[in-house]
Structures are given as structure tokens and as C-alpha cells.
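Hi R.,

Here's the chain you asked about this morning:
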Amino acid sequence: MALTLTSPEFADGQPMPRQFTCDGKNAPPPLRVGDPPAGTRSFALVMDDPDAPRGTFTHWLAYDIPAGGPELKATAGKALKNDFGRAGYGGPCPPRGHGPHRYYFTVYALDVPSLEVGGATRDDLEAAVRGHTLGTARLMGRYERAGTAPRTG
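And the predicted structure, written out as C-alpha cells:
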């Protein structure tokens, strides 16, 4: 079998519960990995929104996540700044009236317990996982904020 990423809170392609968004507690959803490849020693995680008005928006960058057990303990690893400008998780928060957005969680199974990330950006993290990735898996959730977009002009 191949590496899988799931959540007990929402199925792939389904709406994410409000509590995991900026309209709720803005807490990261629980995530589970299944069938990690042999030799997996840690994980890295990227969460992004390709439907953001100005292009893909990065919500979460985590690495050095301990392997072992089905729970992905992303907050036990290290975090880089997201596009909100803070380290850690930033939940879905699409503009009101912009329609549903897709939020992709991508997990990387890595052959090292700790990555040497040469900077503080998503590009730096993605460069660090290259050459250490044993497998990847994705989970996608959706979220739409009620209301209309504010008028401008």
C-alpha cells in the first residue's frame, strides 16, 4: 500500500469544520498517516490554498515531525512562517463571497529524523525535502466563508 493522509474530522474533498478555520478556533485539524514507507524517520507538512485571489497561499509549513504511530504530530515539529506572516498553522480564511476554496495538506515521509532547512521559506523547505522523500500523500478540505465581499471604490 501507499502512504495515506486522512483526518477523523473531514473526508478528502469535503468541507472542513469551522473550528479549524479563522471563523472558529483556528486550530489545526487532527491528521493521521497510514502505511508510511519503510525507513520513514520523520515527516514534513505543507498546507496551501491554490484558490487564493493572488495565487497559492501557504497556510502551514512544518517539518521534523516525529514518525511513529498513526497520529501526525505536526505541532511537535518545527514550523516556518506561513503567508499570514507567523510560524505555525493558519486556518482557512478565504475572502467572503469568493466561493469555496480548496485546502491541500501534503505530507512528506522522510528518510532523516531532522532536515537541514537552509532558510525560512516554503522554497527552502521544499528544497530540503528533495532527496529525502520516501513518499507523499495529500488530503484536501474545502471551506467557504458566508457573506459577501466588501465593496470597494
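The two ends are 54 Å apart (CA to CA).

Let me know if you need anything else.
M.
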